[in-house]
Amino acid sequence: MNTQKQFSDRIDWSLATLLILFMLASILAISSAQTTGQYGESNFALRQGLNYVIGFIIITITMFFDMDQFRKMAWVLYGLGILLLVGLVVAPESIAPNINGAHSWYSIPLMGTLQPSEFMKTFTILALARIIASHNEKFIARTVKTDLWMLLKIGIVVGVPFILIDMQPDLGTMLVFIAITVGIVLVSGITWKLLLPAFVGIGAIAATLMSLVIFAPEFISRHFEDYQMRRIYSWLDPYSYSSGDAYQLTTSMSAIGSGEIFGKGYQERQVYIPDNHTDFIFSVVGEEYGFIGASVIVSLFFLLIYHLTKVSLETKSPFNAYVCAGVISMITFHAFQNIGMTIQLLPITGIPLPLVSYGGSSLMGTMFALGLIFSMRFHHKTYMFSSQEE
């Protein structure tokens, strides 16, 4: 017999509170960023507020479906996402315009643009969680052979959207898919006899490529496009490219550094950064609110990841745990990469700061992913006279 909680008690109020704090921080930062002359009369803060309203509606709808239903719908959602990505490849410019050199968005009259890859991230998480959960239920006795079979299935599921996103092209989103895959694979139960050599090999390849970039640029340049090489060198030595490819990076570091401890104050920015309401919103926070403001944003992400990790540890469903691992990996990589690129810790890849940067598709995709977490808590059951939970 299970005890029925009150409706309000089934809502994850801790996560809801964090999202409200993110919303306030996002709207505050964007409302200041949009005062830069390049945006004219555009009211991105109001649009972001509307995006959050839609995002909370998405969470509410998602929450009322339990995770067993999402497990059943995983392939349907994955297939829908693939169809949308294929559509970007074949659609004419009037439907899938070229924006910043990429065909990543659908143009929707009266609504703006829609980026399918932002939703495909969560669709892929659901598909991977279903594959791994079903595989582990079938192969209780694990062997290297069964683990290789699982890796092959994971590779196929991730490889299809990965290739389609590469055709757009969108390097930043491709890296997010890699991060999601790594996160889920790490908790999938695959033996370290396979994972350790794979990760060591990947690390060795990355170190070799970086060494060639630094010590043998003439060799590595034969195998990469010119713009890719400029992006790497502008990251390694930004001030030598400050008037070109590293302009955003150098101005971002200048803005964050000039904010010092307490910042310059709301709308008191002095450093001009293009597109500062999207990918470089953290630079706005750093300049206006200094180290204190930047620490608040970072702390919110730490609290969010901590809460998601807690949910994953409390759930008794392997499928739910794999979904949590994917969502945690996605948000962690997004935040680490975005903040890292504004301070030269990582190269610029053009991915937004989740829940803070302006962008409807990014925000709604993230809210859908977090809606799955709300669903886990909303449908969580406890049993009388037993420690059993589900």
Outline the structure in words:
The chain crosses the membrane at residues 49-65, 77-99, 148-165, 171-187, 194-216, 289-307, 319-336, 356-374. This protein has 390 residues and is mostly helical. The protein has one domain (9-379). It has helices at 13-33, 44-63, 67-90, 116-138, 144-166, 171-186, 192-215, 217-220, 226-236, 247-259, 281-314, 318-342, 360-378, and strands at 2-3, 106-108, 112-114, 382-383.
Into which percent range does the helicity of residues fall? 55-70%
Question: Which regions have little confidence, pLDDT < 50, spanning 5+ residues?
Answer: 382-390
State the separation between the terminal residues, measured CA to CA: 13 Å
Mean pLDDT: 87
Radius of gyration: 22 Å
The description of the largest β-sheet is: 2 strands, antiparallel
Q: How many DSSP H or I helices?
A: 13
Strand content: under 5%
Give the neighbour order of strands across the main sheet.
Answer: 1-4
Output the structural class.
Answer: mainly alpha
> What are the secondary-structure elements, in order, as H or E?
EHHHEEHHHHHHHHHHE
User: In total, how many beta strands?
Assistant: 4
Identify the overall geometry: globular
Number of domains: 1
Task: Please give the structural blueprint.
Elements: E1 2-3, H1 13-33, H2 44-63, H3 67-90, E2 106-108, E3 112-114, H4 116-138, H5 144-166, H6 171-186, H7 192-215, H8 217-220, H9 226-236, H10 247-259, H11 281-314, H12 318-342, H13 360-378, E4 382-383
Antiparallel strand pairs: 1-4, 2-3
Helix pairs in contact: 1-2, 1-11, 2-13, 3-4, 3-5, 4-5, 4-6, 4-12, 4-13, 5-6, 6-12, 10-11, 11-12, 12-13
